[in-house]
Design a protein that fits this description.
By secondary structure, the protein is α/β, with parallel strands linked by helices. It has 15 helices and twelve strands. It is about 40% helix and about 15% strand. The strands form two sheets. It has an eight-stranded mixed β-sheet, sandwiched between helices. A four-stranded mixed β-sheet has the order 4-3-10-9, with helices on one face. The N and C termini lie far apart (about 55 Å).
């Protein structure tokens, strides 16, 4: 059995797809989400938006349901990882495999520290999932799941393939996770724009904000000698140049890199809408922290951290692209 621990949008969609492929899946999450699944779970795909799969998946709010799982997919927010690890440490048998399906670069390490003696694998989810209504989750951008290359990954690989869920293994997971983090720097910009991802990225003013954040992040990672994996058709260090091109040119080139549903929004936008703390400390905040460790400034990403925290407290949202760019590139004292 596969348990999805902390099932939100990503967990429900991945769990639903695995269940549709014949895997025994149990979703474990908050009552707010689990109650909506009483009528069933519907998962749909960017490539076939009108073709949803309806599945019945056992759901519970009780963490002890993970005790009988051979594989546990951890999908909690990064701030809850240590708590999730401590809970699972009391429940899981020694042979259980734990997989971190989370944003950020440190969650697998946090789980390993909390679960000594158990096999913890890092994974990367490249796509965005949106909730389209009670119990309905839609994959709204393209990409292939990436899983740490390890013999223990075999059962999950088999389950994904049975579900026709694209997945690959890689030995360079730190580089993969940092590359995903650099891509996820757009989460904050999208959340502050108030626009769907496709509309935000279609506007060069917002893309200039993302280009500034990514260029700064790449410079910090280079200085720290941290490799960044290539996850798209374009090498990651070329992305800021693409983002700065005129809108008409970007529309043509972007189609070759990633597909995005017109209604997709970032998970950080969802968090602000729901009044929940965001993961900005585990995205932009990681760039700022790394820069501090190596004695470099990271003012663009530090400014985005401040603006998102201000928005969490009721501050300005729905920034225009030009105003946001001015705010994050303004000289600091």
């Amino acid at each position: 059995m596969i348990a999805v621990f902390g099932a939100g949008a990503i967990g429900c969609w991945v769990g639903g797809r695995l269940a549709a492929g014949g895997t025994d899946v149990t979703l474990i999450g908050r009552a707010r989400v689990m109650d909506e699944l009483a009528g069933g779970l519907r998962v749909s795909d960017l490539d076939a938006p009108r073709s949803s799969r309806e599945v019945r998946v056992p759901t519970t709010t009780d963490p002890s349901a993970a005790a009988r799982a051979a594989i546990v997919l951890v999908t909690v927010k990064s701030a809850q990882t240590a708590e999730a690890g401590a809970t699972l440490a009391k429940l899981l048998p020694p042979e259980a495999i734990v997989v971190s399906l989370q944003n950020g670069v440190r969650n697998a390490e946090v789980l390993r520290a909390a679960l000594p003696g158990r096999r913890v694998l890092a994974a990367m989810v490249p796509f965005n999932v949106v909730r389209r209504g009670p119990g309905a989750y839609h994959r709204a951008s393209s990409g292939t799941l990436v899983l740490e290359d390890d013999p223990a990954a075999a059962p999950l690989l088999a389950a994904c393939r049975a579900a026709e869920l694209p997945i690959e293994t890689r030995a360079d997971m730190p580089a993969v996770q940092w590359a995903k983090l650099v891509m996820n720097l757009n989460n904050a910009i999208n959340a502050l724009s108030g626009k769907p991802l496709a509309a935000e990225l279609a506007d060069r003013a917002y893309r200039r904000c993302l280009a500034a954040a990514q260029a700064e992040a790449s410079a910090v990672l280079d200085a720290a000698h941290q490799p960044i994996a290539r996850l798209t058709a374009l090498p990651p260090r070329w992305m800021p140049q693409l983002l700065r091109v005129p809108d008409a040119v970007f529309r043509v080139l972007a189609k070759r890199i990633i597909a995005i549903d017109p209604e997709a929004r970032s998970s950080m936008w969802d968090d602000l809408e729901a009044g929940r703390p965001t993961e900005v400390a585990y995205l932009q905040g990681e760039i700022v922290a790394l820069a501090e460790r190596i004695g470099r400034p990271a003012p663009v990403n530090a400014a985005l951290v401040r603006l998102v925290h201000a928005a969490e407290g009721g501050g300005t949202r729905d920034w225009s692209g030009d105003a946001l760019y001015a705010a994050i590139t303004a000289p600091t004292a």
